[in-house]
Amino acid sequence: MKPATGRKGPPRLVARFVAISWRDLAVSFGPLVLLVVVAIWAAVRLIQPAPPSTLTITTGPVGSTFWNAAQKYKTILARNRIMVNVLASEGSLQNLKRLSDPQANVDVGFVQGGVAPGAVNKNLMSLGSVAYVPLAIFYHGPPVMWLSELKGQRLAVGAEGSGTRELALALLKANGIVPGAATKLLPLSGDAAADALISGKVDAAFLAGDSAQPAVMGKLYRTPNVRFYDFTQAEAYTRRFPYLTQLKMPMGSFDLGKNLPSASIGIVAPTAELVARDSLHPALSDLLIEAAREVHGGASIMQRAGEFPAPIAHDFPLSDDAARYYKSGKSFLYRTLPFWVASLADRLLVIVVPLVVLLVPALRVVPGLYAWRVKSRIYRWYGSLIAIERSALSEHSPAERASLIERLDAIEESVNGLKMPLAYADQFYVLREHIGFVRRRLTQSREGQRDEAEDADDGRPDDESREQDARGPAAASGGEVAPLSARGEANDTHQTHEAAELGATPGPAADPANPGGSAAKPY
After folding, report:
1. E strand or H helix at 117, and its extent?
2. What is the pTM of this model?
3. Where are the alpha helices (DSSP H) in 337-397?
4. Residues 97-134: pLDDT tens digits?
5. Which of 171-180, 323-332, 372-381 has the lowest mean pLDDT?
């Protein structure tokens, strides 16, 4: 009869081996996927939308310098499939009002420096200055050294809403001349102001922008009894009004042959800025500055080639995009790719770069997390196995032993039902070997206790039984020892003793001293 092994029956191996545990893989990738989703959501919230295909710019009167410049902008931006709507206006003040009005559909406009009120709209930003707006003052009569000497005269200071008028009023106010006093301030500008000065209807004319073109100034300079005012206090004006720049009308600017003027003349000039709303797309900002460089970058009497556009801002802060463009130019993508392709790639980078930064370290963690999850299904049983083994080594009753075996059977059944990746099959079988090892400990413990119980029932201790077995047949027959000459007989006697231990009766040939074949008793 086979000894009991402590098992209810042979275990049936039902463990499933798969190439990959998709459940563990999904759980391992779960935090990473969640992190990626959050990163994409944040990037989408922060990313700039695609640049609009239309742009509205407010300029000046039809035919003015800035209106003509805007028409050139329109042609340049059309190369990149950007449609530009050009709006005519009365001048810088109206342009500023349109830009400040959220209801006005205007994106960018030309604004002369110094016309903005003290409380500047924080939603507006400058893309830089694009040109000087020189102020030229012509007058009748004897030479004038200071503007205060024009008090009480008739002055053409520019049309209402124009930058020329705002600048003229600011300079006159600094010299004690204000509207409503004895001095008459007439809203004449351009050719109308020049003609009024020539005909004697006004005593002085303030010309700026389109009115102060070299042809118009040359015409007035040649007119008898008309003088060009020289800003001898130009440096003081530029200190008092930071948006002004001190310039010089070079000698011979009007006529080189006749050397007109015969000496350089000091003048002051604000700059015209390209002002935009802060919602302007960065890609359009680059295109506008690039167009301004093409339109305004040439040389003239008052500026050198490449002097404009320039990062010069007075009333409005220079935008970050414009500052970046002036410092390093267009980005690599916009230099190498078509505009719309570069715009798409630029927006995708905002998503791709954070994802790469997150994925590279995360993908290194995922394999370890996956391995930990698979191994944890194996390692979790070792605590129970160790507890059962410790119980097996201590004193316990048969009922306790049966309980331990039941617990071990439950562990083995659970282990046999695991779903394991093939890469971890070796650890699975190691666990099963350890379960078998603990089972053998329990079985040996039970067999040892059974043997002790049987020895107690026989009424003799194990030491006495082992001593009796060690004596052999000689001790059983009275303690006589065969002499060395009778080795054959002793050998036969030994064989007979072995046969007796095995419970068999030797045949007649087993004892040569008994030819009759009668059986000989060993004891």
Report:
1. none
2. 0.63
3. 339-379, 382-393
4. 999 999 999 999 999 998 887 667 889 999 999 999 99
5. 372-381
**Paired sense of beta strands 54-58 and 108-112, if any:** parallel
Q: How far apart are CA 369 and CA 380, in angstroms?
A: 16
CA distance 59 to 92: 8
Which H or E element spans position 84?
A: strand 83-87
Is residue 18 within 8 Å of 66, Cβ to Cβ?
no
Q: CB of 296 within 8 A of CB of 309?
A: yes
Distances in Å between the alpha carbon of 54 and those of 61, 73, 105, 110, 280?
A: 22, 12, 11, 18, 11
Q: Dihedral sign, CA of 434, 439, 443, 446?
A: positive
Q: What whole-number distance in Å separates Cα of residue 177 and Cα of residue 170?
A: 9
CA separation, residue 122 to residues 217, 304, 313, 322, 362 (Å): 38, 32, 14, 16, 42
- Rounded Cα distance, 277 and 54, in Å: 15
* Rounded Cα–Cα distance for residues 321 and 157 (Å): 37
DSSP 211: G
CA–CA distance, 325 with 344 (Å, rounded to integer) = 19
Q: State how far the Cα of 63 lies from the Cα of 314, in Å rounded to an integer.
A: 27
CA 377 – CA 28 distance, rounded (Å): 15
Burial class (CB in 10 A: 0-12, 13-18, 19+), 448: exposed
Closest alpha carbon to 480 in 470, 490, 488? 490
CB 334 within 8 A of CB 342: yes
